[in-house]
Amino acid sequence: MAWTSVIANALRAPLRRLIARWVELRLIEPAPSELALDPRHPVLYVLPHPALSDTLLLESVCARHGLPSPSQPLAVGSIQQRACQPLPTTRRRFRRRRSPPPPFGPLLDHLAAHPEEDIQIVPVSIFWGRAPGKRFGFWKLIAADNWQFTGHLRRAFSVIVNGKDVELHFGAPLKLRDLVDERPSELTNRKVARLLRVHFRRLRTRVLGPDLSHRRTLIGGVVTSPDVRQAIAEVAEAQGRSRPRVEKRAWNYGHEIASNMSYPVLRFMSRLLERLWNRLYDGVDVQGLVQVKRLAGEHTVIYVPCHRSHMDYLLLSYVLYREGLMPPHVAAGRNLDMPVVGGVLRRGGAFFMRRSFKDNRLYSAVFNEYLHRLLSRGHPLEYFIEGGRSRSGRMLTPRPGMLAMSLRSHIRSSLPGAEGGGRGLVFVPVYIGYERVLESNSYLKELKGHKKRKESPLGLARSLGQLRQAFGRVAVNIGEPLYLDAYLDSQVPRWRQQRDTLRPPWLTTAVPRLGDELARRINDAAALNAVNLVALVLLATPHHAIETRLLLRQLAVMVDLQKRLPGGSHISLPHGTPETWIAQAASLGFIERRHQALGELVLTDSARASLLSWYRNNVLHLYALAGLTAFAFRNNARLRLSELHELIAPSWPVLRRELFIAAPLSLESCLREMLDTLTELGLLEANGNGSWQRPASQHEAYEQLRLLGGLVQPTLERGFLLLTALLREPSGNLSRDALIEQSRLLAERLALLSGLEAPEYFDARLFAGLIDSLQEEGWLWLQEDQVHYGPTLERGARRASTLFDPALRQRLLQISSSSQASPSER
Predict the structure, then answer these.
(1) pLDDT value at position 823?
(2) For strand 299-305 and strand 381-382, is the pairing parallel, antiparallel, or unpaired?
(3) pLDDT band for position 819 (50/70/90)?
(4) Rg of the chain taking only CA atoms, in angstroms
(5) How many domains is the chain partitioned into structurally?
(6) Which residues pair with 97 in a beta bridge?
(7) Is 113 part of any domain?
(8) Is 806:814 a contact under the CB 8 Å cutoff?
(9) What is the C-alpha to C-alpha distance for residues 65 and 815, in angstroms, rounded to an integer?
(10) How sure is the predictor about 134, in pLDDT bands with cuts at 50, 70 and 90?
(11) Which of 208, 232, 251 is at the close of a domain?
(12) Furthest-apart CA pair in the chain: how many Å?
């Protein structure tokens, strides 16, 4: 026995007590109680490599949680060995590499002779600090875990430096009996070791990310790649410059783009952000990360969150790091590469991109190659498919740029023999929902026409003054992952036969469809909270005021509706009661509770109502079909299912596309379920003759039905105004931009005449999205940017107009007829 082993055995008990006192486990996954060990069979713990510190820590954890002790000998028949064994490591002796045999041979022989017995193997991984790669600073190199296992001295430093930042991961128990077969035990012994090494490698990839080379080496590989070399030659010839000069520019682009992920900065930001979230928010609620942890070790993961705030990328990286996943490389706009701030973000994993580079051949080649190298090596990525932050609060139309580059990279990696070809690519949709965002006031100013303020360190310093305010809770919900290979197989069955080109013809249509699908999956994971619930109800009232009693009942109905017929497959509901939700919205300053002799009222002023519209739009899609159904009963006291279907069928596809809602298998079946649910909630009454009717006007349920229908009224009104503006001109007489502007002016006029201060109501981007939806449905088409339509749109417009009651329809027509566009606008 080596002298180090003798000393270790003598000091084992005091060292275990010392480690138990010094070490703080930041994460144990899964919880020891969830291992479901069978008490009838002995347990063998397996570590990925020999480490006394890991063994002692495991002994301490098992004793604390009542698990079988790793320090006790594993007695199986005549076999006596430790219940905690490392996998053997390769040793070099006399210039030859020798690997000791794995420790499972005697156990396998025993099980072959005793079929009634079994042994449970539990793989255990312990991370003393986490580093994403190499060469990121002296102390990280000495102390943190990375892809190279450490020696005795370095591990001692790691225990001292990283004792307060330790993660322990249990693998799923493996029954050794299941691996016993007819082959010689020597082969089975190696098979067990190989399975465990695969498990440890995948877990290490999930936690630490792939082994990341030095930044300069990575940039050098990008610049010297064949595609970039070709771009350098083409640009040099086209611009009449020398190749070395153009190559230097490519190097500069690489340094401008590439991240410089640093473990010390990740740790610093983790601690800093933990303090920030505790000061800023009442809590961060996370849902759905379990499935991501199963994916991360075997797939290249691209996180695609909605973009509502600058806090999004900080928050998601923090949550992933806290939950034991490697923070992703984040695509950030070049505007964030500010002095000081840009350097910190770059070392936290951000890589920067220009807003547009389609006319810059060299920059495009460098960026595409850099992105491909990250993806092909399995690094997790994060980018926002909407492009920029949503000023209206709703999901914006996805932009094709990053998605197209990701698909081209995947095509390239899927070629035979290409790097990264064995790893699948998975998109992970993420919904981030706030009860209050830092940018509320700036969003409101921008919707009113003010220019977007340029990001700067001074502006960041000004925003820090808001940290003393209350911002409520924030939710991070993971949606349904999208496996790219399976998706392409369903959408483009022959894509694998067209991999010889990086720009196949199907890419033009596949990218927008992929963006829409990801947007729908993000919306399917929406989070209802106190503020957006109150906003949904309060903004549906004519004057943004409501009796507290009615508000309480309507909030309860809204949540019950989502419990019975969820608007998304991965949504989350708020904790508490309607009373606590109202109190939360009041504490955040959105509403006022005013006592009055006949009962308390809840109200808000026009400025705060404009802010609340942003939060309402976050989750409006969850109530689109319910709101459309309720709205149909405004002008119709009684409806059969077939009549309701005929009434809303023209509007539903357009509304669904605008709000990025997944298409139901059958609209008629969904409507039947909706009618039954609204009846159970007391908002409709079922007649014996197969029809439904609205409650009598003197009943409170009548007002509740009107409030529910009011959710979709602004959207339907915008559609009515756009169709009116289009139909009063001959087909092909209006350009797309002219139609958007005329519709926007009509909506602005209606808002002013109604006393409605809601800039989001007449946002030009909403009308642009509406035109895109009508085009997708085939109601109109563009020729040389002129809008054309036919009888289908005319018939659909007539049917959709019957949704409105006569008074509202007449008012909208008056607004349209009294507002004639000037010749310049036409």
Answers:
(1) 40
(2) parallel
(3) low
(4) 31
(5) 4
(6) 92
(7) yes
(8) no
(9) 71
(10) very low
(11) 208
(12) 99
User: What is the Cβ-side half-sphere exposure of residue 481, based on CA atoms within 13 angstroms?
Assistant: 23
- Point out which residues pair with 93 in neighbouring strands: 96
Compute the distance between CA of residue 615 and CA of residue 528 in angstroms, rounded to an integer.
10
Q: Which amino acid is present at 563?
A: K
Write 219-225 long-range contacts (CB < 8 A, 24+).
219/251, 219/254, 219/255, 219/258, 219/370, 221/373, 222/254, 222/258, 222/366, 222/369, 222/370, 222/373, 223/247, 223/250, 223/251, 223/254, 223/366, 225/369
With beta carbons less than 8 A apart as the criterion, state whether 770 and 654 touch. Answer: yes
Measure Cα distances from 32 to 37, 58, 74, 124, 286 in Å.
10, 11, 20, 12, 21
Neighbours of 106 (CB within 10 A): 16
In a domain, 297, yes or no: yes
The predicted model gives 793-806 an average pLDDT of 81
Length of the chain as a residue count: 826
Structural domain of 18: 12-208
C-alpha distances out from residue 555 to 16, 229, 534, 622, 628, Å: 55, 61, 7, 14, 18
**How many other β-carbons are positioned within 10 Å of the β-carbon of residue 192?**
22
Does 593 share its domain with 681?
yes
Per-residue model confidence as pLDDT tens digits over 636-667: 899 999 999 998 988 898 899 889 999 888 99
Q: What pLDDT does residue 675 have? A: 96
Q: Is residue 822 part of a domain?
A: no
pLDDT in tens, 609-623: 888 999 999 999 999
Q: Are 657 and 777 in contact (CB under 8 A)?
A: yes
pLDDT of 486-511, one tens digit each? Answer: 999 999 888 887 766 667 888 989 99
- Across 676-709, b (16+ Cβ under 10 Å) vs e yields ebbeebebbbeeeeebbebbeeeeebebbbbbbb
pTM of the model: 0.80
| CATH number of the domain bearing residue 790 | 1.10.10
